[in-house]
Every structure is written in C-alpha cells, then in structure tokens.
Amino acid sequence: MIPTPAATRLPAPGAVSALTVLPARREQVELHTADGLTLVGELAVPVDRPPVATLITLHPLPTHGGYMDSHVLRKAAWRLPALADLAVLRFNTRGTASPRGTSEGAFDDGDGERHDVAAALAFAAARDLPRRWLVGWSFGTELALMHGRDPSIEGAILLSPPLRWAAESDLEAWDAFGKPLVVLVPELDDFLRPARARARFATVRQAEVIGVDGAGHLWVGETAVRRVLDEIVSHVLPDPDQEPTPTRRSG
C-alpha cells in the first residue's frame, strides 16, 4: 500500500497494530452544554500541520459500557491525525465516566444528550475545525440521527446503528436535510443486519448502506477496525487515487 503524505513525514518504519499510538497533539478539553453541564473530552490533531477534516465522535450506550474510549473511537484518535491529517474529537456524554474523567449530569435516554451533541458542534466551530463529520457508534448513531442535523456538518458516518431510539421521523428529517449519511452495518450485528438496514434507511435517499462481511456489532479484531477506519477516511477525504489507510507507518 502507498502511505498517505501524512504518514511519510514520520521517522522510522513499523507496523500499525492494535495498540499503536501515532504522534498527535492531544489536548484534554471540556465542553459546556446549554443546560449547564461540563463534559470531558479529548481533541487530537496532527502534530505539525492543520487538520484537513474533523471527526466528532459519539460513543456507544454508556449504560452498557460505552464511553469516549470505546475501542474503535480510541483507535481513530490514535491513528488518523497522523495517517490522514484528521482532527478527532472524543467526549463523554452526560453522566459517562472513562479514564479521562466523568462528565456531569446523568444519562437521559438520548433526550438531554441533544445538548451534548450541540456542545460538541459548538466546540468544533469555536476552534474553527474544518469539514466536520459526525461519527456515531451504536447509541451514538441514534444521537447523530436525532440531534446531529446541523448546517455546520458535512455529513455523518454511522457504525452499527440499532435504530432503537431514532424514529422514522428522524430518518425523514435526515432525508430532507440532504447531507451524506454513510451507514456501516456488520453482517453479524446483534440489532440490525444489512438487508434490514437497507430497508430501514431507504427513507434517506442519500444514505449509503455498506454491509461488512464477518463483522459484529462491536467491531472486534484488527481487520474490522481497519475496515471501519478505511471507510471513514475514504468518505471524509474522497480521492479516487487514495489507498486504504496504511497498515505500516513511518514513526
């Protein structure tokens, strides 16, 4: 594979593995919601150049172990600033704890979390982060569909959407919104599998539903993670000459 230009600026060669943490500027940040809460998070950006696009990540269900360090989101922050020149914003929604800390408030079944999504979008705007995409995983896909239709975003990428909280009216609203919606659906998902997902998302005319053979809801294994990161990069930075995200890097 041909490394991206970002990767070639790092020093010594080595394999990108499950635990690889590539260089980035990582800043502990706080987000402030309209209803008075402080949420904890992290912003990772390329070391020596501005990002070309931004991922605003929304984590899985906190009542079932989801948080800003859920492994796919953590690996996106570990790798993509160096490999693809992306900024990656991760944060804990209200009441969610992780090694970074605990966000104020309490889980609100996706309702009060509207303020959390808005706070993340406001933070990205205040930092003038470019070309913002929402990346939701499981419960995070529900937050994107219900609360993410903001003119400031380029589109959204959904990983393993269960469509348990988001209603048909949310899909209709996203269709009218008109922004791209990329839906990655594992073949062996516990909640919504590719055939059913294509039927449900048919409401959104601009939705691209991609079935991923062999994967499960949690995207376990390096093959599944690389597929997710490749799809994210290829949609956020569309380039017909772009190779998949490198599996080897410089540095």
Automatic annotation (TrEMBL):
Tell me the InterPro entries matching this sequence: AB_hydrolase_fold (IPR029058)
Record bears the keyword Hydrolase: yes
Keyword NADP applies: no
Keywords from UniProt, A to Z, are: Hydrolase
One MF term in the entry's GO annotations = hydrolase activity
Q: List, alphabetically, the Gene3D superfamilies matched.
A: alpha/beta hydrolase
Protein's UniProt name: Alpha/beta hydrolase
**Which organism's genome codes for this protein?**
Pengzhenrongella frigida
